[in-house]
Amino acid sequence: MLQRPRRNRKSAVIRDMIQENRLSTANLIFPLFIVEGQNQKTEISSMPGIFRYSIDNLLREIESCLKLGLNSFDLFPAVEESLKDKFATESYRKGTLYLQAIEEVKKNFPEACVITDVAMDPYSSDGHDGIVENGEILNDETLVVLGKMALAHAHAGADIIAPSDMMDGRIGFIRNILDENGFTNVSLMSYTAKYASSFYGPFRDALGSAPKKGDKKSYQMSYANSREALIEAQLDLEEGADFLMVKPGLPYLDIIKSLHDNFDLPIAAYNVSGEYAMIKAAIGNGWLQESAILETLMSFRRAGATAILTYHAKEAIEKGWIK
Ligand code: PBG
């Protein structure tokens, strides 16, 4: 045998030398949930180790992440049911919990990168990402709401706005509104290929944002499809996106790879709540070793993602797995 691939695996130093993909704190984005009130920190039962924070505690949490070198945060609000309506007006009203949170984080930690989520579902009495009329999700009418929401986030200080709604044309629509208002420097991380998935369950528990009726299949993509993701990516590129995201992550590594191979924008992967819950449950039961976490995160790098949104971000750094 002339070729003995095992020779390149014979020592830790050589294994390290030939390692193709690396993961650093710079690749990680930590999603954080916000609630009304003071001194609140309540654990989400389906996401052990992940909490909803009131703004005061959110600031403490972000400070401790920054000390670890974790610098990017994606914020999500849990909105009281009484504030929700058909048109998600709470998503752009002045002085909301969410806008205050963005402002406070940027005021206290200007160096932190704040990513905001644009979609109607946390604020919608229907629990959908768009306006519902006779059981249908209206596309163009929804864009108007998304535009107001994005503009409010930009005014509050968002560094990157991430539309997660899957309405057609939203990237271009939002890009226009931001530019017209002087926010040419605010980035757009598009949820390019977001699939109608069962893996969002724990997130919807965290926010109380599950659809009241029906499912999201008329706007989120079918998990049987991959080529559609290329159409979505092409549109996002043309409409002015700065990042292309694939969501969920683990069951869609092929989609991450395909966008990476076909487009030159940076690719983000969202390692979603259900993926987190699965791994945590298995580790909690002693069925998997904790090293499954790093193996999972590295798979996103191998597939071609540079940015990884993951609830594991902080623990992976705290435990010294990622530097
Ligand atoms: C809402 C949104 C969802 C997630 C991020 N933004 C849920 C959904 O589309 O129903 C899911 C994130 C996760 O599961 O971790 N637009």
Automatic annotation (TrEMBL):
Catalytic EC class: lyase
UniProt keyword annotation of Lyase present: yes
PROSITE patterns xref list: D_ALA_DEHYDRATASE (PS00169)
Domain of life: Bacteria
Matching InterPro entries: ALAD, ALAD_AS, Aldolase_TIM
Recorded catalytic activity of this chain's protein: 2 5-aminolevulinate = porphobilinogen + 2 H2O + H(+)
This enzyme's EC code(s): 4.2.1.24
Keyword line: Heme biosynthesis, Lyase, Porphyrin biosynthesis
Gene Ontology MF, one: porphobilinogen synthase activity
Pfam families: ALAD
Subunit composition and interactions: Homooctamer.
Name this polypeptide is given: Delta-aminolevulinic acid dehydratase
Organism in which the protein naturally occurs: Sphingobacterium anhuiense
